[in-house]
Specification:
Elements: H1 6-12, H2 18-34, H3 42-61, H4 71-91, E1 96-101, E2 109-113, H5 115-121, H6 125-146, H7 154-168, H8 186-213, H9 215-228, E3 230-232, H10 233-241
Antiparallel strand pairs: 1-2, 1-3
Helix pairs in contact: 2-3, 4-6, 4-9, 6-7, 6-8, 7-8
């Protein structure tokens, strides 16, 4: 093997099993062989990893594994993923392991977050807020750049609503009155749903402010991803070093 960074491989495959690691290395070897190379490189590993991830994603969504995607749609996908990366990194530096998009497979990209960071902060209220903001950031980034609604983000919205409902109900984040939401009257349910709607808009505004303050950083992330097809943690860190990033500060007002 050549040009292999063991730390990057560990970040990329965080949470994977030994069997998955073996499969990815074997597939990477095949890609090197197809190119008449004796050694595998990092590009081969990322390619093998992404093929498996996208294949699993297609199964989850019931989507086709191969669709035609035009250049404009690719730009939307790239900026969507760049938005996730930007907000996550500004609110929790080092929280993104990788970001990848496929221009000849499915209509989406994948951003992988550090499980280690979540284990450190996952039970804190601030960690839930960070997860909310970065989940909504892809939609916000796309709409800022292109001025059009992002209609390909239903999974992100569903995830954000699930997080808010947990915060509102089982975690008693806002007030105890919502704890038994689904056991209460329709009026109480309507009140809880109104809170979720309000908080979705509020956290979207926080993500929007962060992105607007760091628009140049967003553009460089997106253009680099468009050129390279993937960014690993070290790639993201190198880009960050070239910018005077405007951090969120006390964005949550707490």
């Amino acid at each position: 093997m050549e040009q292999i960074n063991a730390d990057e491989v560990a970040n990329l495959l965080e949470g994977s099993s030994c069997a998955q690691l073996e499969m990815i290395i074997n597939d990477a070897g095949l890609y090197a062989g197809y190119d008449n190379r004796d050694n595998i490189c990092m590009d081969d590993i990322v390619r093998a990893f992404s093929v498996i991830r996208f294949r699993n994603l297609c199964k989850e969504q019931g989507a086709e594994e191969s669709v035609d995607i035009d250049a404009e749609e690719i730009k939307h996908i790239v900026y969507h993923e760049a938005g996730h990366v930007l907000v996550s990194e500004i609110l929790d530096k080092g929280s993104v392991n990788y970001v990848y998009f496929d221009n000849c497979g499915v209509r989406c990209g994948i951003t992988g977050y550090s499980m280690e960071n979540f284990k450190r902060t996952g039970y804190l209220f601030s960690a839930q807020e960070i997860t909310l903001c970065r989940t909504l950031a892809g939609k916000i980034a796309t709409e800022i750049v292109f001025g059009l609604p992002d209609i390909g983000c239903s999974r992100d919205i569903d995830s954000a609503v699930d997080i808010l409902e947990d915060m509102l109900g089982s975690n008693c984040t806002f007030e105890y009155g919502h704890y038994y939401d689904y056991l209460c009257s329709d009026l109480d349910k309507h009140s809880s749903h109104s809170v979720v709607t309000y908080e979705l808009a509020r956290y979207s505004s926080i993500a929007q402010r962060i992105i607007m303050k760091n628009r140049e950083f967003l553009d460089v992330l997106a253009n680099t991803l468009l050129e390279k097809h993937y960014l690993l943690r070290s790639d993201i860190q190198r880009i960050e070093e070239d910018f005077n990033i405007v951090e969120g500060g006390n964005e949550f007002g707490r």
